[in-house]
Each structure stands twice: as C-alpha cells, then as structure tokens.
Request: fold
Amino acid sequence: MTALVIKSCGPMTSLQDHGRYGYQRFGVSPSGAMDRRGLALANALVGNAPETGAIEFMHLGGAVTAVGGDLRIALAGADCSLTVDGKPVAVHTSALLKEGETAEIGHARQGTFAYLAVAGGFTIAPELGSLSFHLRSGMGGLQGQPLQPGDRLPCQDGEQDGTLMHLPGEPLNDDGPIRVMLGPQDDYFTLDAIRTFLESEYSVSPQADRMGLQLAGPILTHANGFNIVSDGIIEGHIQVPGSGQPIVLMRDRQTAGGYPKIATVISADLGRLAQIRPGESVRFRAVDRSEAVLAARARKEWIAALPSRLVPVQPALTTERLLAANLISGAVDALNPQVPRPSVAVTK
Amino acid sequence: MTVSCSGSIVQTARILPCGDSALSVEFGDTIDPDVNDRVLALDEVIRASELPGVLETVPTYRSLLVHFDPTVADYDSLTHRLLSEAQSLTPQTSTGRRWKVPVAYGGPFGIDLEDLAQRHGLSPDALIAIHAAAVYRIYMIGFMPGFAYLGGLDPRLATPRRTQPRAQIPAGSIIVGGAQAAVASIACPSGWHILGRTPVQSYAPQRNPTFLFAAGDEIVFDPIDPALWTDLEQAAQAGEPVAEEIGR
Reply:
C-alpha cells in the first residue's frame, strides 16, 4: 500500500482537517487546521475536497518519503520552500513524489502553519468524525499522537496519477487589521479599554500555540471585575484575564471558560491571524455583522472557486521527457502489418 | 426581570453575539439550578427544531452557545426564534438520568482526603459520608472530553483551590475546587483537591456510547471497598458503564 513516511519534522507537526464538530457539549474541542485557507488551497492542488486531512507544520519544516508507490502532493499556507528529490517546486503547484523520493519542506519564512496535502487524503480512521489531532485530550492524529519521524501515513492507491496543477496569481497571504465584532462581554470593560483595544498595536507573544495567542500590549481594564461564571467559548474569542493582556482562543481552545471576552475575531480572518508569528504585531478593527457575513461568504466562494482557477502545469521540454515520450507510436511491424508494433523501449 | 412560576426572580434571556458564527443565549450570571434548567430546556427545543444553518449547541451553567453557519442562517430570524422559545419555556426540572457512581475514597485513590478532612475538622470517614450523601447535578460537560462540572457540594466541604496546580491528575479523579465538585474524565492538569477515584469512564473512545454523562444528569457517589477496584476497572475497560442508572 502506498504511504507517506515522515523522515523528519518539528515537534508540533500533526494531522489536521476541518475539525471535530458536534461534540462540544461533551467537552470536545473542535481543533482542526489553524489556517483553513491554506488547507483548502493545498487540497485543491491535488484534487481533494477542501476539508480533507493534511499534515500541518508549525514554524519548522520537515522531510517525507513516498513508499510503495508514487504520491501527488502539494504545499500551501505559510511561505515554505518545497523540493522533490532536491528539485524546487514552484509555489502553489502540485508535484509528483515518486516511490523512494524525498520531499523537503523548508522552515516558514513568513507565516506559521503550512499544509502538505496528498491526493485522495490519508486512509486513517477518523476519531469522532475527524482526523484532527488535539494535544490536550490525545484525540485524533495518528493513534492520538503528533507526527514524528518514522510515522507511516497510509494513502489512497490509484489517486496519484492525475495532472499536476498550479494556482496562478494567488498571494501567499493577505494583510491588514484583523477584523473583530465586539462582545460577548464587552460590557465588562471600560469604554477606554475598548478604545485602547481597537487603537493599539499588540504583539504576539512566544506562548502562541494551537490553543491560543497571548498578546502583549496596553493593559485592558475591566469595569466589573474579571470573574464570570464559565460559559461557552468559540475560536476567535478574545478573553482578558486579570493581567489585562488579551488572549485570542484558537482551534484547540477548551469548550468553556471563565474570563470576560471583549471581542471575537470574525471567522474569515481566523486563518490570517493564526499565520502571524510570535514577535509580529497585530491590530484589530471592529466591524458590524453585515461586513463579517460578507467576508464569510467571500471566503466560502473563494474556496468553492479554487478548482476552476487551477491550470495544468506545462512540463518543461527536457531530454528526459523527450526520451520518455513514445515519439514513434503508430509504426507497424513489417512482418505483421495488422498489429501495431509494440513501443520501443528506450534505455538511458 | 420576570418572575418565574416557582416565584424566584429570574432574568429574561438575552442574546450575546459571539462573532459572525455563534451567539450565546444567556439566562443569568450565577450558578443556579433554575437558570441551568432553562438552558437545558432551550437546548432540547433547539436541537429538536433543526433551524436552518444551526450547527451545534453547547449548554453551559447559565447560557446556551449556538454555533451557526453565517452564510446560511439569517441572524435576525434566528435570534427572534431563540428569544421567543426562551420566553415560552415551561419551567421544569431537568429530564436527565441519575447515575450511581462507585468511588474508592482516600489512600492512593484520594491523596488529598486526609488533608481536607483535617482542614475542615472532620474525620476522613465523616468527610466521605458528607461527600457521598449529596445528590449532584451535572451543570455542564467541559474543559476536557467528558469532564463533568457538578453542583450540590455540601458547603462544609468547599475548599479553595490549591495554590500549586498539579500537572496531571489521574482519569476518574473525584475532585473539589472552591464550591464546585467534578468528575475528571481523563488525566489532566488540575488545581482541585482529589478525594477519591472512580473506575467509571465518562469518556471512552471505543465504547458505545462514547460519552456516558450529559448536562442535566444527576450523580450520587457510592463508596466502595478499594479491594473491588481492580475488578471494576477491568469491567470498565471492557466497555461496561460500571456506573448504574438508577431511578430519581
């Protein structure tokens, strides 16, 4: 069976798909890809549905090998180099990783999370409907673990011989302020605190991970204390504990928690926020519901339109390709003219 | 403010927006069985209604979190419907189940039992008797898969959390933190005090049902002889609930 084997990777490399929804009432965090735009793009390049499970790399790259057959792969998300058998692969382009060859994913030069998708996805049993690995509960992934060197990820056979594709004209990432909607507990803050939050620059602290981004910047003052009875938490909630320093809760958040939330990042901007690196700065801009919904629609349409925007890769005309091509098909055997002559085997 | 049928004053439900794809229907800001009843009653109504675009609901102590797809759901009609349902809920006590949950108290199973008994001027046996006499209500499942937040702790056992949280407590730990009690479902970090341990697996990935308890259920603890632990644990690992569903 064809499989992708991890040769090397960073400590926070894991399988992630769209996420594990439907079980939050039982305390199960959805987890899922930190940047769904990157996940959808990598998947589109190999002909997968946008939410198919892929390998998520965090900051550090790694190396993978195809065993038991060829694999069609693609990388998207953070700006990382990709080479196959030592040869560079152009950005937003799928590549064929032949049996025994190694693909190397470089460290992120910009952004944090990169996605390596394989045509047909991985044939790994989902847990509660999802492959997504969740660190704190040990759910999903490969037997409840992050990926590590030596891991073997079984893949779909027979999905690997499709055309290699390229997505032209797509920026690596958009920038600009992260859009938020105020609430649910903005009434727990002074008007000054809300103004400060919207007008200041915050920097992402080194504690940023899949669970949350700690931000450092001007202190936000609570108007009514910071002890509330725990209520539900969603990804994008910006909670402010007693320290007055906001924390944006991300995909691996717990399902309930107890600090007032000043604002919530709109769904369309969550992936963009996840790509901001520790030490980089972030600004927030308040928007109303109609702008947030328009952005969510635009994101949905962007993902739906991906397959139609792909163009086939035009292979360069190299000697190797010319030799591999059957340039004399149609020749017939002089002794038996009714049967086309078998192709000439070209030896190199 | 409105006055409920039972005569206690309850706040009118209000909608708190949570970004573009969720909202919270808040019934109050305290830990109160009446408030939690209303949360669970609305949860039941909404789950049965299959409203367009609604993806998932999450009941908590005092509010119902509603996840929806902003490209499908119409926010105004959704909030209108939620508020009108919230106004017309029939006050009812929770329709959950009651579970008898075996617990091995003290010793290696409850490493904080003696310390807590001493702090409260009780013998360990008296503390166990008080803890096991109460009927606990599961207000919500959260924090970790299957982690049950309980109300109903005897105020004599309320104990501030540890100043140094433990990096990990065992699965099944029966714990107390402040005025709250809980059943820890899986090994997790905690600053709460450990009184005992149950072999019951609130969350068991290979079992059907995967999750045993739900918000609105009740729990009574049944002290067991620690000698029974191994057998019960093996039964739980073989997929038996071990907790017994009893009448209310």
About this structure: Residues 1-10 of chain B have pLDDT under 50 and may be disordered.
